[in-house]
Amino acid sequence: MKFSKVPEATIRRLSTYVHHLEVLEKNGEVVVSSANLARSCGVNAAQVRKDLAYFGEFGIRGVGYYIKDLADNIKTILGLNREWRVAIIGIGNLGASLLLYKEFFKNNYKIVAAFDLNPAEVAGRVSERTGKPVEILHPDRLKEVAKDRRIDIAMITTPASEAQKVADLIAQTTIRGVLNFTPAQIQMPKGFEVKNYFFTAVLDNVAYLLRWKRR
Amino acid sequence: MKFSKVPEATIRRLSTYVHHLEVLEKNGEVVVSSANLARSCGVNAAQVRKDLAYFGEFGIRGVGYYIKDLADNIKTILGLNREWRVAIIGIGNLGASLLLYKEFFKNNYKIVAAFDLNPAEVAGRVSERTGKPVEILHPDRLKEVAKDRRIDIAMITTPASEAQKVADLIAQTTIRGVLNFTPAQIQMPKGFEVKNYFFTAVLDNVAYLLRWKRR
DNA sequence: GGATGTGAAGTCGTTCACAGCT
DNA sequence: AGCTGTGAACGACTTCACATCC
Fold first, then answer.
1. Residue B95 sits in a domain of what CATH number?
2. How far is it, in rounded angstroms, from Cα B67 to Cα B76?
3. What is the pLDDT of residues B138-157, one digit of tens each?
4. Does A188 reach chain B within 8 Å, measured CB to CB?
5. Smallest CA–CA separation between A61 and chain B, in Å?
6. A46: Cβ under 7 Å from strand C?
7. Does A204 touch chain B (CB under 8 A)?
8. Within 10 Å of residue A58's Cβ, how many Cβ atoms?
9. CA distance A55 to A77
10. Domain end call among A40, A63, A78
């Protein structure tokens, strides 16, 4: 298979399709039409069909889509049928939250390492919250640990001012995916997949919309 | 002023321009060209100029943009020059993290209330972490408190299965902006500004890109 | 000279509308 | 009859290229 040019927006929507298909499945539904799935995901029905069409034909004309079947197919497309090994770098408030927030992760993501400049202090603080000992490593060990533990994706949750230093460290490892939670724009060599996820930008967007509401 | 049709992507970028302008200002820079700002934000220079052109003329030909001036202008456009009063609904791991993560908020966002179905238990758990007493309210009181404390924006950090119930409660209040951190698609009446911000969708996107990397 | 502001061109994504299956 | 799959129309956003102004 070779999916030449799939819009990024399509990929984002596929994630939400999976979530809603799982809800439908849990409710005992068996088939769903593009129109229904579209409604619950807040998109256009043609959009659903187009998104799926990038990857094959999963429906039955006159009927719809078998829910379990479609969910499995999308998971395979997205790579959610395999385990992804994740590291968290920077265990402040956000990093610690991600570290503890097991529910946040579907079972295909697994946190296999956590790094911070003050391993001992941070480990103490976190394990106080959990009651269990927690392993926090110094970023010096990133390269070695990334290899040993086969880390696929790093999540950067340091202060913005440290983000580029972390990115430089990551560039020297076998890690190839990065999710950057800081507002800093990080530079990485070709071949790395980097996504930014800075939540106040979205908050600013809400503020803007409220700001210019007529009334 | 009336900004008929500004792309949402433009608004998102304006947030990042502000961040980078503030970094430049802190470094003692005075003027910046669209080309330089664009580079540090990872976008095209024409894009920067187009984005700004939606709102006016802020630059000087042959020179560039005065950094402080431009930052102030963008903040005014986005509504970041006024205080926005925020509530967090659902104080689990993520909600608690947002509640405590003061640095996450620029000074124009202020958390003025936190809600959870188990106020007493949750308040105990959170204040254990901070050492200070923390007020957690039952969602029953949302309408009353929203009015008294003039809440502008609600952040939903409950489990996905509760999100619609929360949305229904919000619909009855004076709150008009919502940031939904759950994967559920919430339905709200006209006149509400809702943005979804579900982080595993972005993680899935990274996984997808890694999945289909040739090699 | 040099960088902005902007029409025009280009690219990308969404929606329509209907042919084609079941 | 109903719903998918898809070419074609449409619309939106981005990039180019250059006239304009400091």
1. 3.40.50.720
2. 14
3. 999 999 999 999 999 999 99
4. no
5. 27
6. yes
7. yes
8. 16
9. 8
10. A78
Hey, CA dihedral for A135, B92, A92, A98, is it positive or negative?
Answer: positive
What are the chain B neighbours of A8 within 8 Å (beta carbons)?
205
Task: Kindly report, residue by residue over B183-214, the tens digit of the pLDDT.
Answer: 899 999 989 999 998 888 899 999 999 998 75
* 3-state SS string for A19-47: HHHHHHHHCCCCEECHHHHHHHHCCCHHH
Chain A residues whose beta carbon lies within 8 Å of the beta carbon of residue B77: 208
- CB < 8 Å to B126, chain A: none
With a cut of 90, say whether residue A2 has pLDDT above it. Answer: no
B178 in contact with A, Cβ within 8 Å: yes
If asked whether residues A92 and A73 sit together in one domain, one would say no
Per the domain annotation, does A45 fall within a domain?
yes
| Cβ <8 Å between A205 and B183 | no
* Structural domain count of chain B: 2
Mean pLDDT confidence for B60-80? 97
With tokens 């007020």, the residue in question is: B135
Average pLDDT along chain A? 93
> Do A153 and A90 share a domain, yes or no?
yes
| B176 and B94 fall within a common domain | yes
Is B213 a domain residue?
A: no
Q: Does A11 touch chain B (CB under 8 A)?
A: yes
Per-residue pLDDT, averaged over A81-90, amounts to: 96
| Whether B69 and B154 share a structural domain | no
Separation of alpha carbons B98 and A149, rounded Å: 30
Residue B215 is predicted with a pLDDT of 47
Name the B residues in 116-175 with CB < 8 Å from any A CB: 129, 152-153, 159-160
Is the CB of B9 within 7 Å of strand C?
Answer: no
